[in-house]
Amino acid sequence: MARPRRAVGAYRAPMDRTLAADLARLPDLLEATRRAAADALATLEARPVVPPAGKPLDPEPLPEDGAGTEQALAAFQERWAPRLSASAGPRYLGFVTGGATPAALAGDWLTATHDQNSNGALDGAGQDLERETVGWLRELFHLSDAHTGTFVSGATMSNTTGLAIAREWLGERLGVSASEDGAAALGPVRVLSGAPHSSIAKALSVLGLGRRSLVPVPTLPGREAVDPAALERALADSPGPAVVVANAGTVNTVDFDDLRAVAALKERHDFWLHTDAAFGAFAALSPDHAHLADGLDASDSLCVDLHKWLNVPYDSAVQFTRRRDLQARVFQNSAAYLGPLGDHPDLVHLTPENSHRLRALAAWFTLRAYGRSGHREIVERDIACARALGERISHDPALTLLAPVRLNVVCFTLADDPTPARLTALREAVAAEAFVTPTVYGGTPALRAAFSNWRTTQADVERVAQALGSAAREIA
């Protein structure tokens, strides 16, 4: 006798018992999580900025039967929380990393709560909220309405997206389409830059243009800013259209290319101008420093990293371009369940990411909560802190300041025998008080302290300066 077939949708097993119990207690569990978060933030000042590494933990096996959120929270607090750095705090001075303002944190929690797929018009107003936020950011950085923008995960993805549009522009100039025919259809490509961030070479590798397409252009004497005359000579030597990557804030010394001078070269040479302004764009918020970012609006594409100086949680950045039509040509995603391209393409057609959480909400919250003036105060306070640390280092005989403090990064080294090993010892000696990162500047091994956290004050500068000076003298 044939067995009866189960009707589609006839699955009747109950919800997992532990999951059902968590659902019934959800408000209490969220309150417990809130208390854990509040305690973590309240102890930022007292915790080591980077805890001692210790012995790596042996991985635990995946549990067959879970014990619920309460037990998971307790296990996290015991096993992992003590090992996490205080990267949300005021003396984490590595990687130009901000923290999360109270409003940004609220926005990020609600991002997970509402769990939006914000890539298309079929699912709520997520992409409309993102467009409003991008409009606010465009205004914040003094860009024109000609620039459209989209949220991505960070500066690397922003630079990659901008250079992908540049790649399509090269094809337009040459009568081919890289997105349809492949990068090989372009032939040799030249990407010119004075002091590019490492993510530029990575993007060129991903895009099939190759790291070797990146052509270094001489910088001004004693600077990381490109020499406009040298750039013009390099453009004159290019056999066809080229890409120029300008820098608005280099990693080591926050040096700025003369963006107006670079853009003026378009009158005589054919090139796409991509500007990496990951954190330098925020100079536009300060009347005393806005001149550094003058000319951002001339960019054909532009990178700004928001989890740096906007102080929203990882991972969040924005990319802008003047050629959304080329952007959609590169990233269009053809599927029956997606909206058409049209004049205002859905966000799914504008970046490599089909999965696109509502990152814009944290940025929307902090901009709505504190406005232009609140974020200007953060930028100007961080600049003042960087200059104060630079001043302290310049007067400390055990340390040497390697470059002027132009904005928010202090580049320095040991005054005596600055080998990588000795600098590692210095960095590790101060890890409980401050986190700084290694670099090389002008061939000299060095350290850099980057100020971009909304909590940092002059009191933190004093603690960092004392820790660095004491450790440097002990090493000497």
Folded structure, characterized:
- The chain is an alpha/beta fold and 476 residues long.
- It contains 15 helices and eleven strands.
- Helix 4 (102-114) packs antiparallel against helix 13 and helix 6 (155-174) crosses helix 8 (198-206).
Keywords:
39% helix; 476 residues; seven-stranded mixed β-sheet; alpha/beta
Overall average pLDDT: 95
For the biggest sheet, the summary is: 7 strands, mixed
Give the spatial strand order of the biggest sheet: 1-7-6-5-4-2-3
Work out the radius of gyration: 25 Å
SSE string? HHHHHEHHEHEHEHEEHEHHEEHEEH
Number of helices: 15
Which secondary-structure class do the elements indicate?
alpha/beta
The global form is globular
Give the CA-CA distance, first to last residue: 90 Å
Keywords: Aminotransferase, Decarboxylase, Lyase, Pyridoxal phosphate, Transferase
GO molecular function, one term: transaminase activity
Organism: Streptomyces xanthophaeus
Cofactor: pyridoxal 5'-phosphate
Compose a concise summary of this entry.
With 476 residues, the chain is of the alpha/beta class. It has 15 helices and eleven strands.
Spell out the blueprint of helices and strands:
Elements: H1 17-24, H2 26-42, H3 69-79, H4 102-114, H5 126-140, E1 148-152, H6 155-174, H7 178-181, E2 191-193, H8 198-206, E3 214-216, H9 228-237, E4 242-247, H10 259-264, E5 271-276, E6 301-305, H11 306-309, E7 317-321, H12 324-331, H13 360-394, E8 399-401, E9 409-414, H14 420-429, E10 437-441, E11 444-450, H15 458-475
Parallel strand pairs: 2-3, 2-4, 4-5, 5-6
Antiparallel strand pairs: 1-7, 6-7, 8-9, 9-11, 10-11
